[in-house]
């Protein structure tokens, strides 16, 4: 698959039979809906696209996630949810025999997933667990983190459901599981293994469960959702409703670059133009142009009078920046503007 942006002459909901959709920052923000999410997903389903919601949140049961989505006018069943807790339990099975003791530091979703995988859940390092499974829970405190550290110091395998440093909420960005895992890492000096994104484990599990022909990853974070897409060989759509911005797209490392960029989940319903080289270092997408000259990103004029035009400007800027950087040129990040498509 191309290392840059690709085009689609048919709506993504018709090109791909399965969408692996992130939750926080894509379908909702905290407990609040994201504008256009319900309409976009409903219309995508009507065009034949199936959905599996793939989340790095390991604290909740799949049914709880499905209930929340349904309450936001996105009807969902539990078998359409794939959590990092389920992926964490799957990772444990690669090394631990059934019946092994696992210290679970996290919410109910992780406890359930570990038990269903055939392990004995314990709460203390003194129970001599073979592994520590750590996931986010809003009520997680020092005492639980200390037990995890004690167990890891004594040789327990440390497995994190995910390493997201931040968690989008209705009030802003809060510390995510990666920040809490960092406390245990700092105390022990031991680097944990991770089951969640950017590992593509959950994506492969979801595709296998659905029996999909061709899947599209949809996410808001380059370092997890889109990096996981690249790692797993899936096409990735970056929607600009969450953590990573259009400017982040332009500056993205090769392993985190999206294949498509859209403003929101409505981008599942439209065609996506592919940028093309226009000569003298310029790249064009629609009427938008961009190039990198002397380390400076230059944007053409006349494409920023509509949201579609601004999206094309982002695409052209990405193509120009990625081509220059991959060819060994320097790009001065201070010359890359915010590129807000909604202004």
From TrEMBL:
GO molecular function: phosphatase activity
InterPro entries named among the record's database cross-references: HAD-like_sf (IPR036412), HAD-SF_hydro_IA (IPR006439), HAD-SF_hydro_IIA (IPR006357), HAD_sf (IPR023214)
Gene Ontology cellular component list: cytoplasm
Record Pfam families: Hydrolase_6 (PF13344), Hydrolase_like (PF13242)
PANTHER family: 4-NITROPHENYLPHOSPHATASE-RELATED, D-GLYCEROL 3-PHOSPHATE PHOSPHATASE
NCBIfam families: HAD-SF-IA-v1, HAD-SF-IIA
Listed name of the protein: Haloacid dehalogenase
Organism, as annotated: Cellulomonas composti
């Amino acid at each position: 698959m191309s290392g840059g942006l690709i085009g689609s002459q048919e709506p993504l909901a018709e090109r791909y039979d399965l969408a692996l959709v992130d939750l926080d920052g894509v379908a909702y923000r905290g407990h609040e809906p994201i504008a256009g999410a319900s309409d976009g997903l409903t219309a995508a389903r009507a065009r034949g696209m199936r959905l599996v919601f793939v989340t790095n949140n390991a604290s909740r049961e799949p049914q709880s996630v499905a209930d929340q989505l349904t309450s936001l006018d996105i009807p969902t069943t539990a078998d359409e949810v794939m959590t990092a807790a389920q992926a964490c339990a799957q990772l444990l099975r690669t090394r631990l025999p059934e019946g092994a003791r696992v210290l679970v530091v996290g919410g109910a979703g992780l406890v359930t997933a570990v038990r269903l995988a055939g392990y004995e859940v314990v709460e203390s390092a003194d129970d001599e667990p073979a592994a520590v499974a750590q996931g986010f829970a809003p009520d997680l405190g020092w005492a639980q983190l200390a037990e995890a550290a004690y167990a890891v110091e004594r040789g327990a395998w440390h497995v994190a459901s995910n390493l997201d440093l931040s968690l989008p909420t209705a009030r802003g960005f809060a510390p995510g599981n990666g920040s809490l895992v960092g406390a245990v890492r700092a105390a022990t000096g031991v680097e944990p293994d991770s089951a969640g994104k950017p590992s593509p484990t959950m994506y492969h599990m979801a595709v296998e469960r659905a029996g999909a022909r061709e899947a599209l990853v949809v996410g808001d974070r380059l370092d997890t959702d889109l990096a996981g897409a690249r790692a797993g060989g899936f096409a990735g759509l970056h929607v600009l409703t969450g953590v990573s911005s259009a400017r982040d797209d332009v500056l993205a490392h090769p392993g985190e670059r999206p294949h498509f960029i859209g403003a929101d989940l409505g981008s599942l319903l439209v065609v996506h133009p592919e940028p093309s080289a226009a000569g003298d270092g310029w790249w064009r997408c629609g009427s938008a142009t961009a190039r990198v000259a002397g380390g400076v990103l230059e944007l053409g004029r006349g494409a920023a009078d509509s949201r579609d035009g601004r999206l094309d400007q982002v695409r052209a800027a990405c193509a120009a920046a990625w081509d220059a950087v991959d060819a060994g040129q320097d790009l001065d990040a201070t010359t890359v503007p915010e590129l807000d498509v909604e202004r």
